[in-house]
Amino acid sequence: MKFGVIVFPGSNCDHDAYHVLSKHVGQPVDFIWHKETDLSGYDAVVVPGGFSYGDYLRAGALARFSPVMKAVKEFAAKGKFVFGICNGFQILCESGLLPGALMRNAGLHFACKHVNIRTENQSTPYTNQLENGRVLSIPIAHAEGNYTCDDATFHSLEENNQIVFRYCDENGEITPESNPNGARSNIAGICNLDRNVLGMMPHPERACEELLGSNDGRDIFRSLTHAIAENGVGV
Amino acid sequence: MKAKVYVTLKPSVLDPQGKAIHHSVELMGFEKITDVRQGKYFEIALDGGMSEAEAQTAAEKIAKDVLANPVIEDYRVEVSSS
């Protein structure tokens, strides 16, 4: 099982993802510079958080034109796993690998804190070790995490169970107060129709050690490992 | 040849930055300002050898594929020879 972590100019959570994959998941990991065009040999790639291209124009907008993104699209089309975290989620939306867009937070502030998110779909390669309703404590750190999409997209996300995580309170209730950025329907993470591409604003790679305040993020990586071990099929 | 591209949020999309600016404008004493929407403006210099139609086509593609995110934004392109 081999993981890759894509590195764009301005990525800054690449080492966190590398650390978690090598230390806690215990599998070989490579950094993949954004000029690479070959992803053969990898089972999953992480598109990490940070500020690719300085967030110029729109967060994630310019990273989409990096050579590696063509390879990431082909990789995803083959059913391999593509996991976008924070800026990675923004890049996947800008690239069209996931629907919708991430806008400036409704409160305009950069939000940096632990939040609670509720597992909405346990039947994905990223949540097969969780159960629906399970509340995870995971940190967020973003200024553009306000998920938005048109009504047709939203209904199709709901109908196809593509909403994987929602912001909630500590009891798992979906409330306006627990929404840190104004995201539509408290959406914190979504997957594509085939379930092999996931994007989420919270940082599970920063929640894998008790010392850091939570290790809930480990179950997401554990799920992904399980999915890869099951021959690339989710659940 | 120059192309001017205006990128604006779709009317249905909430614009928190525009709202904050609107609030500041109200604090300045302008009570009759009813709304402020923030957008982006780009100037693209094109080779003089291009026809106006070619420049329009190129600028439209750049606006659609890079400058605007069609999920949340609209764009308008103006090409002029000056």
What descriptive keywords fit this protein?
heterodimer, A: 235 residues, alpha/beta, Rossmann fold, nine-stranded mixed beta sheet, 22% helix, 24% strand, B: 82 residues, alpha+beta, Mth169, Chain: A, three-stranded antiparallel beta sheet
Q: What secondary-structure arrangement, pairings included, does this model have?
A:
The complex is a heterodimer of chains A (235) and B (82).
Chain A: E1 3-7, H1 14-25, E2 29-33, E3 44-47, H2 67-77, E4 81-85, H3 87-94, E5 101-103, E6 111-119, E7 135-142, E8 146-148, H4 151-159, E9 163-168, E10 187-191, E11 197-200, H5 218-229
Parallel strand pairs in A: 1-2, 1-3, 3-4, 4-11
Antiparallel strand pairs in A: 5-8, 6-7, 6-9, 9-10, 10-11
Helix pairs in contact in A: 1-5
Chain B: E1 2-9, H1 16-27, E2 39-45, H2 52-67, E3 73-80
Antiparallel strand pairs in B: 1-2, 1-3
